[in-house]
Structure formats: C-alpha cells, structure tokens
Amino acid sequence: xxxxxxxxxxxxxxxxxxxxxxxxxxxxxxxxxxxxxxxxxxxxxxxxxxxxxxxxxxxxxxxxxxxxxxxxxxxxxxxxxxxxxxxxxxxxxxxxxxxxxxxxxxxxxxxxxxxxxxxxxxxxxxxxxxxxxxxxxxxxxxxxxxxxxxxxxxxxxxxxxxxxxxxxxxxxxxxxxxxxxxxxxxxxxxxxxxxxxxxxxxxxxxxxxxxxxxxxxxxxxxxxxxxxxxxxxxxxxxxxxxxxxxxxxxxxxxxxxxxxxxxxxxxxxxxxxxxxxxxxxxxxxxxxxxxxxxxxxxxxxxxxxxxxxxxxxxxxxxxxxxxxxxxxxxxxxxxxxxxxxxxxxxxxxxxxxxxxxxxxxxxxxxxxxxxxxxxxxxxxxxxxxxxxxxxxxxxxxxxxxxxxxxxxxxxxxxxxxxxxxxxxxxxxxxxxxxxxxxxxxxxxxxxxxxxxxxxxxxxxxxxxxxxxxxxxxxxxxxxxxxxxxxxxxxxxxxxxxxxxxxxxxxxxxxxxxxxxxxxxxxxxxxxxxxxxxxxxxxxxxxxxxxxxxxxxxxxxxxxxxxxxxxxxxxxxxxxxxxxxxxxxxxxxxxxxxxxxxxxxxxxxxxxxxxxxxxxxxxxxxxxxxxxxxxxxxxxxxxxxxxxxxxxxxxxxxxxxxxxxxxxxxxxxxxxxxxxxxxxxxxxxxxxxxxxxxxxxxxxxxxx
Length: 703
Hints:
By secondary structure, this protein is of the alpha/beta class. 50% of the residues lie in helices and 11% in strands. One of its GO terms (biological process) is fatty acid beta-oxidation.
C-alpha cells in the first residue's frame, strides 16, 4: 500500500494521506512522485470534479519534509533539482482547473503547510491538536516549497516575516482570522465539510474570501516605504540571533524578492537559499540535534516499566507546581500535591490553573484545562500518598529535610513505590541513605520553568533496577520531556558542567571583568542568557548551596573556586527574588547592572576581550562534559549534547559540547586547553579522554 489512498465519492476524489509504518506523514521524493501520478489521474478523469487532501493519521496532517533524505544529499545542485520538482508539482496543483481542498486536522507544519497553501481552499478543525508552523528555521533552513511566497501573499509581509523567522505556532482561530484557513469545523465533520466545499468550489457557488490588507499594511508593504519593514526585520534578526543563524536573513531576502520581482523569482530565491543553507555548519549542527532529540524521546527500557496512575508531588512552589502541571495536563495522571500546609498546596494548584489558562486557544481548550486541574488534588499530610505509584519530591536542597521526607513517605507508601528526587546537585545515593528501600530512590531532575524546559535528567544509582528506570523514563516521555539517563555523582551531568561554567564567570569577575561584559559575550556565543543573569534568575543563594555540594569535586582536583557568591548573598543580594543581585530588578534603574556587587570583588573593572571570555567559559564547560563521559556519568556523547542544549541552553547552532569539539578539531581543542592551562591554572588541564581521541584522530561522532 502506498502513501496515497484515493477514494471517489460523488464526483470528489478523497485523497487520504497515510505514510506506511509511520505515526505521521512526511514529504519525500517518492511521495512527490505519488502526488504527481495522482494529480495526473485527477486531471484526466472526467467523473472527478474536485479533490480533497485529508490525513488518515490520528491528530496529524503532514509534519514536513523527510529531513533524513535531504541530509543524505551531497551537492547544492541535487538539492535544487528536488526542490524544483516540488515547485513544479505544487504549481501544477495550484493552477489546476479542478479545485483541491486541504482538510487539516493536527499539525500542518513545514512542507505540510506548504502543501496546504498550494490548495485552493483550506478547512481545518478547531481541535487543540491542529496547528500551523514553519519550523525550518530551527533546523537552520527555510521553507522551500513556496512557503515564503504563498504564505506572504495570504497573510501579508509583516505577519509572514514574524511567523517564518521565529517558527512559532499558529492555532486554528488565529489561522482563520489571518486568512490562512478559509473555514473551521469540528473534527468529526471534517471530511464531509471538505467534500461539500470541494463541490461548491467546482460548481462556482463558493469562492474563497481572501483577507483584505488594512490601509496601514498597504502603505508599509506596497509602496517604497516597504524598505522600513525590511530594515526593521533585518535589525530585529540581528538583535535576536546575534548573527548566529544565517537562515533568518535569507528568509527575509526570499520574501522581499518575491514581493519585488514576483513569485517565480521568489521560488528561485527559495531554491538557491535552501540549497546553500543545507550545507552550512549551523544547519548540520541543528539537524543533528533534531535527530538526537528524536532519539531521546524513546524509552530504551520499554516493556519493563510499571503502570503509573497516581503521582505524588511534594512541594507546591515553582518547581513542584510545574511538575504537577505536566503530570496532569500532559501525562493525564492523578496528582497528589503536598506542601507544608493544605493552603500552600491549594495555592500551587491555583498556579497551575493560571498557567494553563494562558494556553487556552493555543493548543488547549478550556475544557481540557479544567480536566487537567481537576486531576490535581491538594493534600495536607502524607497519608493519601498510600495510593501513589510514584512520588517526586521538589523540596528545598537540604539533605536532612530530604531524609526526613523520604522516611515519612515510606511509612505510608506501598513497597513498590518509586521515590524520585528533583534535586539538582545532591548525589542520589546520599538522599537514598535514609530509605528502607534505597534501590527505589532515583533522580528526576527537571529544569525551570518545568512546563517550558524540554529536558528531564533521570539519575540512576548502581543499585537502580531497570524497571524503576524504565518507569521514570516513561513518565518523563508522557510529560512531553526529552529524557537523558545519567549516572549518579555530585551535580550529575548538567549541574556539574554548569557549575564549572559559572565558577569561571565568577573568577573572571574577580579578575576585573564587568558583569554585563561577561553576559553579553556569552550571549554572542549563543547562550540565551549570560551566566550571571542566569544566576540571578535561579537565585544566587541557590547557586551557593549547589556550590557547597560541588566543592568536594573541585577540592579533589585542587581547583580554584570563587567564594564571592556567598559574600554577595550574605549582603542580601539573592537575585531577582530579592529585587537585586548582579542586576537591579526594582526602581528607576531596573534592568541595569547592580554597581554595589563590585564592592565584593576586590578589584577595579578592566576590559577583557569578548573572545577571551567566550573561550574560557566555553572550554571550561565542554572539557568538563568530556570528563563526565570519561568518568561514566554520561553513557554517551549524544546524551551530553542533548543535555547541554535542551537543559542549559548551550548554543544550539554549535550542536552541543561534543559536536562543537568535533567541529573545532580535537587536536586544536587540546592546544587551546593547554594554552589556557598555562595562563590560568590546572582547572584547564585537558581530560585524558580528549587527549586520547585527539591522538587517535577520531572525533566523538566519527569514531
């Protein structure tokens, strides 16, 4: 059975899209061949008056092009040839005398959205699963099947620029309002409504109503003043990407070309730009991450997990309420949410309601929000946890408090209860020391804010049974997380490499670097936020507690550490939560550097080159990542790249620490570290594993 299954009903060809042996539909060269043959039959069949494209998949239309196929291509010429055929096919469908209706339920993204744009009419379901997007920019690419041209003609230049350059989702009501879809319908009526629309289009009784641009839009987009729109787009792109994502200016260029020189010139610009971008180091890194992320969304221990129906969450603050939210709303689990009092637990449930209310109309209905919140039950004592299959503690980073909590949970919990700690640094073995059944104590390290941050770091001890691991991974996946599994140790993987990175930032401060100079340098490198701003957001006091946990690791290697964070906290500067930290968060100077922190740093400010800051901080982080692989904290370099990018914000276009080292060249990395070692001390000594790999000529991905 092929990708397309054509059924003829009442003069309409219902073209069902159903990629064999795949949960979703993708576009590939063979699929385009099937479309071409089907289009030929449609045009030649006198009994067929119109066609409907509709997916046979559950809650999914078409999710885009087959990225693996494009990644196998060797030359820009090959790429342009495939895209040209795609342009010809969609152009032929668009100009067909027999109308084609796209009946959309679920995601229509990337090439799937471009396929729908070439149809004469689009009807979509109003279901939360339905969304539209151009995610190509996240792979360092751009829409190349006419998306920059047809979408812009439908919704206008300014809206097209904003949506295509960010890859953001558009939901059904928004799509209808902007003119992307012509009609909305409930899922059960989609096929019939699409058939009626197709016949009405063929009979001339239905004509698509296209959105009329406002006077302001016409002035800014259809007159010489349009240069203001493009100039602003280029400026915004530079500010947001810091020049690190070449796809964004190429998208602007393609849209501008199409508007100025016509659609055919725009299509040609798309082909050339996509073919060039595909071979850039940025796109290669981003596509590798895409494949790694997909791999981390599978359970390597599938089949050994036990069923979880009820999850206990201890602590109803920011982290605890976030864990409760993803457990209830994404995983559909019943959640028992406990805090020091029933009132605090109820407040945490209220925060979940507020958070989900912001998502209503954006992939969630009010009914789904209410159902999710109803699954969360605030509790004031431990007794109800007797019904829990999994308990996740998200209480303060105090080992004695965690020990006490585990004892209380075990008093009421079943013998097969799994207790997971959300600690970010304390070794799980130390937490489990208080347990009667320590083998069932595991780490589930989430990142803040939990509903938005994709990573979950599951931490195993030597005695962790595979069924416990399998169950925790399955829960993380059900919560919508990208999961890596690491071995136990201070800071595990992510907190460990982050603590070395932040320690180096604090040492730079002691040497005279300015707060904003450090943060700006690392944002230019590709981090979404600088290390000192990050410390403010996490809480400098929290950072100090983590540093205490990590101290034995530093001391065992006789490494220099900074104690300035503790002095800053002692003076009352804890970051955003106290109104001031390295930056000010209140008053007239809100957002500026807090000059008072310099009083604790013991030296005047002096200029340190941005490149020197970037090299010290990035090489410190990536070398510690290699040590984690060397010591067995990481099972693979792939997990290391996933963890650093999706948990810590390591520059995605650099691919993660191990991909970054491979692209740099391991011999060059060893030289860099030795130079830094000579200038700044033993903490920059190259890891043995890195030296061995460099000597063998093998990279992490090429071995």
